Amino acid sequence: MLPLTQPVRKLEPWQDPNEKPYIQIENISKSYGAIQAVKGVSLSIYKGELFSLLGGSGCGKTTLLRMLAGFETPTAGRILIDGIDVTNWAPYQRPVNMMFQSYALFPHMTVYQNIAFGLKQEKLSKTQIHERVQWGLDLVQMLSFAHRKPHQLSGGQRQRVALVRSLVKQPKLLLLDEPLAALDKKLREQTQFELVNIQESVGITFVLVTHDQEEAMTMSTRMAVMEEGRIRQIGVPHDVYEFPSSRYVAEFIGTNNIIEGLVVEDEPDHVLIESQEAGCFVYATHAASMPIGTHVAIAIRPEKVMISTTPPAGSRNCTKGVVREIAYLGDMSIYYVELESGKVIQSSLPNLLRLSERDVKWDDEVYLFWRAENGVVLAT
Amino acid sequence: MGRRGVFVLAGREWRGACNMISDGFLNYSWQQGQEKLNTLYTKGKNSQRKLVVFLPYLWLFLFFLIPFFLILKISFSSSLIGMPPFSSIFEWVGDNLLQIRFNFQNYLSLIQDSFYREAFTSSLKIAGSSTLCCLILGYMMAYGISRANPKWRTVLLLLVVLPFWTSFLIRVYAWMTLLSTQGLINSFLMKIGLINFPLQLLNNSYAVCIGIVYCYLPFMVLPVYTTLEKLDPVYVEAAFDLGCTPWRTFWKVTVSLSKPGIIAGCILVFIPAIGEFVIPEILGGPDTIMIGRALWWEFFNNRDWPLACALAVAMVLLFVAPIMFFQRQQALALERGE
To answer: What residues of chain B, 212 to 251, have a C-beta less than 8 Å from chain A?
Structure first.
């Protein structure tokens, strides 16, 4: 929904047709024998973006990243960085640096030597190297750890050293392979913001690979959801979450209630779906035109499903069920409501009241309803 | 006495050296093992743990420390014609008088007689250069094996150790038939017309080097392979990624990180090589004097046991002890995490 008064906004680079992409991945494929890890991926990434590649294990995201770094040569397609074709460049020739999942800090070198290692290869003078290393250490507040060896650092500190080691080279593109996977949950959340702040302050284009959707959602400007070597959807986190383009994405990102049904009405501003599974008509405003009789799936986020013991006004987007389970998560609770068809719908509510003070309890008969714009219609 | 006597002596030297290296070389893993045992047996298993720790020390005490002190004792006595062929240091004179006579002449002769100095320097040269050759050759082999397809690695490693299935002596004699004037190499070179007269390949220090390199190569390959195999390839990728060329990466990352294996391999080759007797005896010339041969001459030709013992003690103190000390420092540094 658009705000009432829309301010004049600068177009984001991916919305601006005049903007030239900084990193261009053109129809790239990679096969290992008979196994195709990446199948014809094309992607444009703009300068200063923090772009995430999201997907389950084996979806090809890491292979794609390694092709950007130069560790793997694509079987087909090409990669352009700042307009230059680097497809056949060796990793040490590319203006690209990578932060490895295991950090890969050289164990026989101190923090200082690790960070200076990449700069020494550029044949910089000693003072230049020193200045850059100091700048990097200062950036992540690690100045006092310069002479430690990697194994004397904590996981979070190692992560920062690894980041700085690749940052001081001032690459055109920085690749991050699961940068936060080795940290514990609390540190991970804190580091996410740190990483974004650093990225914004240095202005380097980041491409991040992650299987953690929360990480991708909080950090990236745009993200690509991958499955079986293909990109399923590219978009800003909000769009990917709110308007998944396929059932796979809808189920992969966050939790979704998926209801199946048949289109009975197709109007320019809405579609009406009759769902046996939900036991009601679903009226959805956010949907592409679908011919009548098409079998579709409707995705509704649990936080958008409201729950009440009294029937709401209107009969569309409203169904009835029995509370089978209440999962108490601290900040919120998830209600598992079984519909007459046997389908279980999740509804999550913030815990404003204590469980004992709520009117919805186990085995209560309740009404579930949602707004017309919150049902996303997907072709199956 | 012949060969049998030779072997007893060579064997003694060899075993002593072996015990010492294994003590130093295994120090690190030994302590690690102890730590693991500590956690395993913290409660109520103290006696078992002590037994496990005690046994190797008992072994070292019985078969290294006691023989070493016997040798040390003989090295301070004087040579005699008789059985045993040396005087005793401790002697009861009269009823209550214990006479202790230390003879330092043996050690003085080691310094004064240039023969022994030459033996030391030539041993050092031959062992040093053979160790270097072993390192270059062994590193290449170990690197190759560690980069080979995993299913081939075991086979390749087996091939490295395969020569051990035949007798050491036969392997050294085989080189004689290869290197002699009528040997395979010379006849081949003459046949293809590269040379008209056979080359003097046998009976010089080069032949000794070849023999040592050939015999001790597995001792270099195995420890180097172990470190290379464990080396995470991600470090090489990280170096490439940071703009390091493959050649520089090899030196700065691969070689640097395999240093523990290189050190272990060098020690395993250098220490037995420096006391080597059989190889210089068979492949060396009359002028190839190594400590092992000098020892044999002193024991069996001159029957000067005290001088031979002094030579043995000097060798341990000059070559083996510093290396052990260095190893210990390394192990301690590793443990401190430097």
So the answer is: 232, 234-235, 237-246, 248
Please give the full DSSP string across A41-108, using - where no structure is assigned.
Answer: EEEEE-TT-EEEEE--TTSSHHHHHHHHHTSS--SEEEEEETTEE-TT--GGGSSEEEE-TT----TT
Strand order in the sheet with A280-284: A280-284, A270-275, A257-267, A295-300, A376-379
How far, in Å, CA of A46 to CA of B60, rounded? 68
Distance of alpha carbon B243 from alpha carbon A89, whole angstroms: 12
* Residue that is written with structure tokens 């990728």 in the block: B237
* Residue range of the domain that includes B210: 2-336
Contact A96 B241 (CB under 8 A): yes
Q: Are B124 and B320 in contact (CB under 8 A)?
A: no
ipTM of this predicted complex?
0.86
How distant, in Å, are the alpha carbons of A23, A301, A374, B230 from that of A320? 50, 17, 18, 61
The confidence score (pLDDT) of residue B22 equals: 42
Cβ-Cβ contacts under 8 Å, B257 against chain A: 106-108
Partner residue opposite B242 with nearest CB, options A107, A117, A152: A117
Residue of A nearest to B243 (CA): A92
Best residue of A106, A111, A163 to probe chain B, by most B CBs closer than 10 Å: A106
Q: In terms of CA atoms, which chain B residue is nearest residue A98?
A: B241
A236-248 tens-digit pLDDT: 999 999 999 999 9
CATH number of the domain that B139 lies in?
1.10.3720.10
**Angstrom distance (rounded) from CA A344 to CA A322:** 9
The nearest CA of chain A is from the CA of B235 a distance in Å of 6
Contact residues, chain A to chain B, C-beta under 8 Å = 69-71, 90-92, 96-98, 100, 102, 104, 106-108, 117-118, 121-122, 149, 151-152, 165-166, 169
Beta strands in chain B (DSSP E): 90-93, 97-100
More confident residue, B269 or A313: B269
Which of B235, B244, B246 has its CB closest to that of A104?
B235
Q: What is the pLDDT of residues A223-232, one digit of tens each?
A: 999 999 999 9
The reported pTM is 0.81
Q: Which of A245, A202, A229, A204 is nearest to A36 (CA)?
A: A229
Q: Which domains does chain A have, with CATH numbers?
A: 23-247 (3.40.50.300), 258-379 (2.40.50.140)
CA distance B102 to B77: 6
Cβ-defined contact of A149 to B338 (cutoff 8 Å) = yes
Query: Which residue from B243, B246, B337 is facing A118, i.e. has the nearest CB?
Result: B243
CA distance A159 to A145: 13
- B253–A166 CB contact, under 8 Å: no
* Total domains present in chain B: 1
